[in-house]
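WP5 quarterly update. Target: UvrABC system protein C. Source organism: Aquirufa antheringensis. Length: 600 aa.
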Amino acid sequence: MSTFDPKSILPSLPEDPGVYRYFDEAGTIIYIGKAKNLKNRVSSYFTNTKGKDNKTRRLVSQIRKLEFTIVHSEFDALLLENTLIKQFQPKYNILLRDDKTYPFICLTRERFPKLVTERRINHAMGTFFGPYANPKLMNALLEMLHQLYPLRTCALNLKESQIEAGKYKVCLEYHIGNCKGPCEGLEQEARYMEYIDQVSQILKGNYQKAKTFFIGQMQDASTRLAFEQAQEWKEKWQLLENFQAKSTVVNPSIHDVDVFSMVSDESLAYINFMKVINGTILQSQTWEVKKKLEEDEAELLTMLIWEKRDQFQSKAKEIITNIPMSIEFEGAKNTLPSQGDKRKLLDMSLKNVLYFRKEKADRKAAEESGGDRKMRVMIKLKNDLRLNDLPKHIECFDNSNLQGTNPVSAMVCFKNSLPSKKDYRTFTPKTVEGPDDFATMYEVITRRYTRLLEEEAELPDLIIVDGGKGQLSSACDALKAIGLYGQIPIIGIAKRLEEIYFPEDSLPLYIDKKSESLKLIQQLRDEAHRFGITAHRNKRSKNFIVSQLETMDGIGKLTAAKLLKAFGTVAQLKEASEEDLAKVLGKMKALQFKKQLDNL
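Structure tokens (predicted):
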């Protein structure tokens, strides 16, 4: 193939919308792009080459042929570009085809339809809903529908002639109340189809018709004094209400919107898609795309939006994004909300994207560490506690006292999952009298982090409090008082059931007992307890010795403390010479003290 000469070709290019294709020496398509103005867009590759990144310069150096197709509009160019990229998969284009096949829910087209899951669409089989990027959400929805309606699950051919001939017998599902026995003609087809209509509406995200039906049945049963039936209908209505309440994230008046958010760096783009109907998220997916060239963010996002809307069969008339789309789709307006419920949806989408990116980065760091256990445990703990950052620096607090005497609080520090003993600290409460764990925790947390702030020292990535909701609440109050609340993640661990408590959440988290992250939390808690008990014993022993020494003539509390500081124990005092004692007490007092000490 001859050398490509852009100077001879560019002047003759049309200024219309279209799609262009670059070929290499072997005649292979290496890049496909769209343009609002073909002449301007194609010319931009061959002018100001110094301002291009390395990948774009490499692409240009390999171009040996150019072909283009003129279309009516930029939107048509997008559609053609999308189709051609999927067909030829050029090496310099991002890969649009997702290798995954997501499951669908199919409402079968047969007498007495049933719900089945499929990964391939076959419209002859029935009506398809989905696909569901989150199979757990799909299974929860199916489970709820089977609780609400007596839908059959068998594969029997329920033709009227087959049923009248008595070819089938009811199965266990009938006997346990999950099915009304259409196989023996025990279920009216009209009634069953009424259920199917409501199921179809729920799968579309419309709950009102089903709720109205349940309320009507409940009221009818109540009027007939059939209170047990009324209770059953009430429970179904409540089940649907609770499911919708858990699914609804914003105002239900937001009827049908697609939400897309994207963040990107030099080599990767991260995108989240949420399908929202009546304030409920019916679909959600986050994925990454490897950038091949220096793609424009708006164009890249627009292309990906088209791809996902096609894959998820979305016809939403509003598309919410954090970056303006490069073109507007026919029949769909692009919105960039700055406040209100739509902004909440966009923030939620962005939160998913940022979490996904951080998780990917953490996983990559773990792989690059060669499977290092310490890194693996920190990543697991970060994910279990839903932290924003790796907990490389953790501090754990424990209070220790015996019947209110000699109270001591201990703080142990782990860095990179290992004890950092030089950073361990003990605290003797100064403002608390008696055994008050809550007040002690408040004082200790205040003292510790006030000092770190004053010294401009490194703050921890996670604080752990040994105790339940009470101790955690006191620690949170202390952080609020010094302006650190919300800046440092903090949890409490209750001993009995190893329950993890979060601030302002009454429900605990239970981490798998075999989890490495729980074992790390337990190790911190146990180490804080050990260190606190040791400090408590030392303090108690010191106080006991001081009390013993105070019983001797001429020895007060201050002098006893000086002796203890100089010699450590009673045994070492007894072994000390008069000369050594005189250095602390003076010659005459040392002689008198030595005689009393020998009798102790």
